Amino acid sequence: MKKSLSLLFVLSLLLMSFQCDDEPDEVIITNNFKATVSDANISMNDTLWITGNVSSLAFNETLGDSIPNDFNNGDLVSIYRLRPATNQSNSVDAINNFEIIEAVGQTSRLGACPNGGLAIEGALSDDSSQYRYRIGLKPIDEGDYILSWNFDTSITNTDRNTEILSNYPVDGNPNTIAFDNCGIVSTLPNIDTSEGLYFFSVE
Question: What residues does 45 pair with on adjacent strands?
Answer without folding.
Answer: none
